[in-house]
Amino acid sequence: MSEDVRAGEPLTPQQEERIRQLVREECYFRDREALIKLTAMTLLLKLAGTLMLGLLLLAFRFL
């Protein structure tokens, strides 16, 4: 995109399509990163819950 776009000039259809594509890609990567973080946090919470239940079972077994 070596064209110089001045303020006030309308964008060409190719420029509009490129902007739409860039926005779509950015949204995809943000959503993907958020989903990975959410999955990791869910896994950590499940592991912590399992560990706590295991400790409670051990504590009640020896009481």
Ends distance: 73 Å
Mean pLDDT, rounded to whole units? 90
What is the radius of gyration? 26 Å
- Give the total of beta strands: 0
Tell me roughly what share of residues is in helical segments.
Answer: over 70%
Q: How many domain units?
A: 1
Structural category = mainly alpha
Strand content: under 5%
Largest sheet: none
Order of helices and strands: H
**Helical element count?**
1
The outline comes out as rod-shaped
Low-pLDDT segments, ≥5 res: none
Transmembrane segments: 38-60
Keywords: Membrane, Transmembrane, Transmembrane helix
Give the secondary structure arrangement, pairings included:
Elements: H1 13-61
Compact overview of the structure:
With 63 residues, this protein is mainly α. It has one domain (12-63). The protein has one helix at 13-61.
How would you portray this structure in words?
With 63 residues, this protein is an all-alpha fold. It has one domain. It has one helix and no strands.
Task: Identify the notable features of this structure and list them briefly.
0% strand, single chain, 63 residues
